[in-house]
Input
Amino acid sequence: MSKSREAAERFAERRRREDESQRLLELQPDLLTCRIDVTEGGGSVTGSEVAHTRTVIVERAPALFVIPCHDSACRDGGYDITNEMLRGLRSKQSEIEGENRCMGSIGNGGSCTRILKFKAISTYRAS
Ligand SMILES: [Zn+2]
Output
């Protein structure tokens, strides 16, 4: 299989997972806003830290939180923080913090060592 074909398949697979997964609002109907600050560091690129903020579009977000790895040498990388996020959102936590290791691989069977730290800030409808 060609490289681009492979990438397309992976993308399609990810889309399928997103389409099939539950909506965020089904899990937590009182969620109003959610923003995730992430810092990614370590790995093969020494000293490079990437920090960014993801704004979750609450109205149409799937109940799936997968953040891509930014190491260009990393294959199939990404951080699945779905469990931590859903646990926190279910119990209406305004801050959810956690850490996750990249699940990708580099070169011949080596694994990516990048680490993602995240902090999600959410607001909920008062009940
Ligand atoms: Zn990675």
